[in-house]
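Quick one, T. Sequence first:
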Amino acid sequence: MDLLLEERELLPDNRGIRRPAEDSLPHQNDSILEALKILEGIEREKLADNARQVGDFFKSGLQQLASKYPTVIQAVRGLGLMLGIELAPQIPNLPGDSSKTQAIRFAHLLHAAGLLAIPAGAQIMRFLPPLNLRQGEAEEGLKLIESVVAGLAG
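Structure tokens:
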């Protein structure tokens, strides 16, 4: 479905995000205006910058854990705060139902430790914290992850 946009209604800094034209469908106007408000908030609060900075810190910490515990974490991937770890194959001390994937069993351990993470495949754990995550909160998360990983590494 097409949406009519007017060039003359650029946001103040002319980023190229255009507001919907008056004659476009009313329900689309509301949705687009709400999306624009969200994007403006992300920009105003510098959440993209925060995601890069705290994400780099978090990723570096995960990479250090991968180096320290290669029998548990095989690789770290991601960008900004969208990060994941690839679990090593056949983690020896991983508890839980062996008919479940390693990622599911690892997720249960993280949840029990107080960290929310999502399995994304048989060997991948995905971390997707909010864009306003602070470095101190990332440090706390890394400590929780390390407590689980260290327990598995023996």
